[in-house]
Amino acid sequence: MDKQNNKRIRTRDEFSSFLESLFSVVSAENIIYDPERLTAYECDGLTAFRATPLAVLLPRSVEEILSILAVCKRYKVPIVPRGAGTGLSGGATPIEGAVVLSLARFNRVLEIDPKNRTARVEPGVTNIRVSQEAAPYGLYFSPDPSSQIACTIGGNIAENAGGIHCLKYGLTVNNVLGLKLITLEGDILTLGGKGAESPGYDLLPLIVGSEGLLGIIVEATLRLLPKPECAQLVVGCFDDLAKASQAVSLILSFGIIPSGLEMMDKLVLDAVQADMPRALLNSAQAILFCEVDGMQEEVEEQSIRVKEIMLKAGAKEIVVSKDDSERMLLWKCRKSAFPAMGRISPDYYCMDGTIPRKKLAYLLKKIDELSAHYNLKVGNVFHAGDGNLHPLILYDQSVPGEFEKVEKMGEKILELCVQVGGVITGEHGVGLEKLNSMCIQFSSEEIEQFRRVKKAFDPYSLLNPAKTIPTLHRCAEFGKMHLHKDNDLWGGLERF
Amino acid sequence: MDKQNNKRIRTRDEFSSFLESLFSVVSAENIIYDPERLTAYECDGLTAFRATPLAVLLPRSVEEILSILAVCKRYKVPIVPRGAGTGLSGGATPIEGAVVLSLARFNRVLEIDPKNRTARVEPGVTNIRVSQEAAPYGLYFSPDPSSQIACTIGGNIAENAGGIHCLKYGLTVNNVLGLKLITLEGDILTLGGKGAESPGYDLLPLIVGSEGLLGIIVEATLRLLPKPECAQLVVGCFDDLAKASQAVSLILSFGIIPSGLEMMDKLVLDAVQADMPRALLNSAQAILFCEVDGMQEEVEEQSIRVKEIMLKAGAKEIVVSKDDSERMLLWKCRKSAFPAMGRISPDYYCMDGTIPRKKLAYLLKKIDELSAHYNLKVGNVFHAGDGNLHPLILYDQSVPGEFEKVEKMGEKILELCVQVGGVITGEHGVGLEKLNSMCIQFSSEEIEQFRRVKKAFDPYSLLNPAKTIPTLHRCAEFGKMHLHKDNDLWGGLERF
């Protein structure tokens, strides 16, 4: 991670005095500083990076947060906000000399408003709970990251989380209507609301996806959607990834907007095969999941059309869900893909990048080449409709130097994404993981502008610093340059 | 407008030297400084505010813009960006001692990409032209402000323009995928692109609607939509505004998302009646337009349902368009509402505010009361589906003091919008017009945060200063305070 020089706590005495200040404003049961208990907070879902925080704070009120921010500002102690810690890019991983500010106790559902189809919740509420509370009104919250049972709304907003349904219903940013945010200066800002238009600068979408660098979210107003009358899942198997990719393009070009359009390759299929219907395993190189939802007749008509398109694109076998329980069973194969990798490899590293859909076949070929070059197996699961790839690089943590190789290969994959006009993240964020890749994605002017925006919210750079936005110094050291902008000041390109 | 003290050009000599610098970097035919020709640039669609700029610059290239910005920065001369000047809140109105930077000559359509359904255009391209160029591919650009024949994409983006179809297809912000922006520092930033996710801070939606305060847009990538297979317009007349409002709620609660849902009251109806089908004029107090679009069967089914709902809500008469030419004819009544006001009043002032739909009936009653209080007639046309009101205050410019009364009444209406949980703009922006109302909408902390964001892009406050974001000093002088936030530091409320 990038080094920061604003650390203030250097001695045991300074630490004691800092702790004392915290105890004077926060209830004792809301402060963890016992080293044993701190280990639980050493990392998030990106387990390869770890650091022990000075302390973990679990405030229960806005007032406690304001006091914590004031104390940290006085001692120049960085603050790392944290939801459930399920993120995959290190956004909630502590940095050296920082405290972790957990929003776990901000876990109340404040209001379900069925008339306006909104939910007002605190950031520590889990994603799944919003839909559970909305269910009696026939409503649900559409972003559904695969960690939805555990992950929290605050984390979803920080990372602009996606999920299977975001092709049709949008990412988190499209489903958040309002936020209450505390800045490091202790200002409480109310952003957005229940309407579409926002006078002044629209800061709401700036905060969504800002990975905890601009403020502490203490409340969110979410858009709820009416549950579709029905949904049907069409699953096809193909003997060639390119044919499955072709089916994706065809489905979308027919004006069908599936509620889910997902693909898995052979290696992933091998891992999950115990869960798959036998017919689909028949010499399959790729599996395509296409769900359509809406009103009964519309869904029936569309799923017939999807089946026809898949056959035309060369599908070998097709299974169409007969009812909701069969649909959920089929989805289970897709949703179990990540955990199932454990059956075939001791460890795996989940990448996340997005490319224009038409480059899908090209990029998969390139990933194959990288896989051979680095001698690392790669499984591919992806949100095909959005062009959001999740290459899973298989490796063994116990082999010295292997993770470093994995990291290098991961960077190469992201470089390829940028090269074909894509971006270095789809839904997992940048965090600690992709700082180098940011140097490829953005020009020095763009990174400088990011840093100026950061300063407009957090002049002392105490909120989750050293993440997401690299320093220009780091980019210079990294020695690669951004790829696809006209205003490139960096000179030539280094390509794979 | 708010006073700024950074003006540098005070003497004729300084002006000559400034002009000389401009001539050294911009072709002579791209500079207007002859007073007669400058009058055309004294205001935008908000004709009540006027000022003469020092000069008008019409650059043809990014290099010329960069040079202009550098010269203006050296002389500390404010810059007012301008599209077609059709805006209604004074966003493109010059301020004292400023130059106008017209993007009129950035008028090329750079690319129509039917496969990705995008258009890449320069900011001076008119709104309608994008749809015209996309038409051969069966595509169109959905935001359709009523000035769409004249207004430009740059202006649409600056004001986050809407139109009749934004209930279903979103405001401009939902239809812009990428931007190329020049900051006052001369940095060229590429924001967004063809994909959904944006690593780092998502600056794109921050720029959309920022009213020319954060940078100069030189290129935009727009989302194109496939033209719906068919559309049908259901128009109903009601003897009571409340019944028509009820129909709006009912239609939406049935899960129908109309492609247009518009209302007009009696006074507006009187103005446009020459264009209306006779049946609809029958003792009508309100007219409701509801358009549905999509696939043939779906549209037929939905328009029958809309008709049933309108009847249930108490419609006296209903006309359903039989074909596209009848549909366009019916829409003409709605679209001619603004110009038609000229038939019944020498002048009118068009307001723009947004409220939660359920407050529609309440707010219309309140506007009636204000109309009586100020003795000013008000016609109401609105995007009912979005809760976006356009009260048209009728007056006579030649009566001394009447416009001041109109302005005061306008402010009161916006105050009411905020009071019921709404906002002070729907699609026209803040500009010069609504600076005072911003003090009601936002807390001092929020306004301060806006100013910090402005500074992160434009540290010398030279880009369209004194607009959109009021100074705290102005808010204090205005003496009213924001209405609906918890963190109100301003003390009590002054209400109408």
UniProtKB/TrEMBL annotation, chains A, B:
One of its GO terms (molecular function) is oxidoreductase activity. Its cofactor is FAD. Keywords: FAD, Flavoprotein, Oxidoreductase. Pfam families: FAD-oxidase_C, FAD_binding_4. Residues 49-227 form the FAD-binding PCMH-type domain. Signal peptide: none annotated. PROSITE patterns: FAD_PCMH. The keyword Membrane does not apply. InterPro entries: FAD-bd_oxidored_4_C, FAD-bd_PCMH, FAD-bd_PCMH-like_sf, FAD-bd_PCMH_sub2, FAD-linked_Oxase-like_C, FAD-linked_OxidoTrans_Type4, Oxid_FAD_bind_N, Vanillyl_alc_oxidase_C-sub2. SUPFAM superfamilies: FAD-binding/transporter-associated domain-like (SSF56176), FAD-linked oxidases, C-terminal domain (SSF55103). This is Glycolate oxidase subunit GlcD. Transmembrane segments: none annotated.
